[in-house]
Amino acid sequence: MAGKIKSSDIEEVKARINIADVIGEYVVLKNASVGSLKGLCPFHDEKSPSFNVRPSQGFYHCFGCGEGGDVFKFVQQLDSVSFTEAVEKLAGRIGYTLTYEAGGGPDTGSGLRGRILDANAQAADFFVAQLATDAGEPARTFLTGRGFDAAAIAHFGIGFAPRGWDNLTGFLKGRGFTIDELVAGGLASQSDKGGYDKFRGRVIWPIRDQTGAVIGFGARKLFDDDNGPKYLNTSDTPVYHKSQVLYGIDLARKDITKQRQVVVVEGYTDVMACHLAGITTAVATCGTAFGEEHIRVLNRMLNSDGPPAEVIFTFDPDAAGQKAALRAYEDSHKFQAHTFVAVGPDGLDPSDLRQQQGDEAVVQMIKSRRPLFEFAIRQKIGQFNLESLEGRVSAARAAAPVVAAIRDEALRPAYTRELAGWVSLPTEDVARIVSESVKGAKAAAVAPMRTDGTAQASSEPQPAPSQQTYPPLNPRDPLAMVDSQTLQVLVQYPQSFNQGQLLRLAKVGMAHPANNAILQALVQALSANAETWLGRVQQVAPAELQSMLLGLAAAELPVKSEDKILEYAQAVVSKALERALVNEKNEALAKLRRIDAAANPSEYEAAQQLLVQLERERRALMGE
Question: 478-622 is classed in which CATH architecture?
Fold first, then answer.
């Protein structure tokens, strides 16, 4: 049985890896305060960046949802892997060889994800090699017939799955993979005879994640006697989750961020056609409808700084395409971008358009995009006879909810006027219909209806009972806020204070229980044994305050210059010490007043000496 990864290796990988590089493959990060980067949180939907990364300290924290941790936790959460798999993945990224306790190697149980990725990579090479064989001629003919030459085929890594039952399975078993691993990875299916290939007699597209790792495959049938679906995709596996996967994201990721644009097409050949025509921001879903998880992936790349980004959908003009377009419209408000629809001439998709009219036609198709709101409105009014007054009024009523759903208060009146023109009704009449629709939507949001037609309470989720053992900080409590600012410095810049100063602050304590618990944890961390100061504090801080601790560590300090940050931190510590000394002095003075000098002269004298000592320390601290 394989052993555990040595702790020294885990720390070495963490020290060598740049957390900003890893997170930057999922989230667009931009400079914030000194030593801090910001982006849109990958763990919840947000429009303003609250996700903070501290590369020098090796952790991340979101001030919006409270998620935070080190690079291993980030990979665990984003890739849905175990801790061991996260360490192994990051070690492989930097070429570091891990060692295992008791002389073991990688744990093939917890490391199944790594085994699947390895099998996928070798399967992709196998398919590419098979495309060049005589058996691959039908696949080559299919691809060249659609305008893809050898360079394009190589660029996208397209291959061919031969028609036999166990060509790939036998190849990978010969490379040391078990049938259970191949089934788990979606490459094979179980049988009494030891398993058979899932993909047979098909053109194969490798599907990669943002880092370029092959996570699955898409396959199109070539032969008439193939009774399977036209397109067959990898099923969900430990590395492939179809609700999140976007074909072409590995090639498009950088340009999506740079151009602040993404083009969503419907198929693999459409992605190829767009990229070859110069639209290098094109991606496609893989055998599933475009959904919320896909939106979340793209929002992280588009970010929210700068001019509005663009999301451009292309849909077939058939009923299925119209339905998909309206579904996209319903989710359009979830994008951190303006949304558009691009329709090719004669309803041609990008692949057919490029094949018939060339690259420039694809470029013009994308340039001729129309706002998704306009598209949705026209779809609604197109269902009515606009030659009659009754039909025009009905069309206005049908389209009004689309206009009412426009959240931009400046844009809604403009579309109201457009709608009035399209249905040939007075603008004031259409505005009244839209206004009624807006009011109806608000009423429905406040009191949604039960299935029996009666009103019910709002469906907004109610907060779960708090598990917190510390009362929340009051944002209007100036003392608690000052203490929090002090803790930010103590957590982020341990070089700004010495042990004696920290002990003095802890002796006096802080008023708010949560702040005080963190302060006491800082003292305990002096004797902890983690590699970093933050790591030592995390070891001893209460579990229920871990998120608060990361928030303090990630908080932006009001200094923009690196050479001024330590000076600021030391000044904050000095002010905190001054307040602590003043508090001690006040307590000592109160105690002095309670002492009966005649009955306890020695105690009275000791209290006086303490007051003198505290005042001397305060003056020295202030340089008086």
Answer: Orthogonal Bundle (1.10)
